[in-house]
Amino acid sequence: MTKRTISSAHDRIDGLEKEIIAIKTEVKIQFKDLFSRVKRMEGIMIATTGSIIALLLAVLTKMG
Length: 64
Fold this sequence. Notes:
Order of helices and strands: H
Number of helices: 1
Largest sheet: none
Strand content: under 5%
Radius of gyration: 27 Å
Helix content: over 70%
Number of strands: 0
Shape: rod-shaped
């Protein structure tokens, strides 16, 4: 078993800091990608809703 000293603790903490920074960067990239996907889905849903409303109005005007 290795001796645990204050300097070894600092080294481990520095290693953890680098890992945390890498994880934060990866999460940031993933959230940016997720946000763009949600935005694209939102656009598709708005366009679909608009076309459905237009079709319903066309049917109503032809019936009346």
